[in-house]
Each structure stands twice: as structure tokens, then as C-alpha cells.
Amino acid sequence: MSTQTENTTQDNGETKNLPTHVAKTRIGYGKKASYERIGVAWENDDGSFYIKLYGTQVVSNFTLYAINTAEAGA
Asked: Biased composition, Polar residues: where in the chain (predicted)?
């Protein structure tokens, strides 16, 4: 596995890798559709992604969304 990017420094000087994307899957259709957060992802130096999914089983597909700084705590 290659080195992950987007490091931030905490107050105590330690470096922590924060995810760069959130993985979501759509539930339902049309205007009533909602999105369930199923994991996070980090972009690697070579442009690939390391994806860590939560316990949810993915039946068909999922989408990656870039994390904005305002959403980082969500």
C-alpha cells in the first residue's frame, strides 16, 4: 500500500491522516432518495484510493465525494 496524503498536525505535534473522501450509497429513487454514509477514503500519492467501508454490505455500487473542510467533523 502506498503512502496516504493529506496529513494534518495535531496540537501535540503528531501527524494524523484524515480521509479525503466519504463513500455513500443511494437509498430510494427520485426526490425521495437519500444517501447513507458507508465509509471513507484516502487518495494515495499515485492517484489511487484506499477505501475503508463500515459494516454495511454494498449490494450494487457506491460513490465517493470529496470532503470539504466544513463537512470534516460530520
From this structure: 1-18
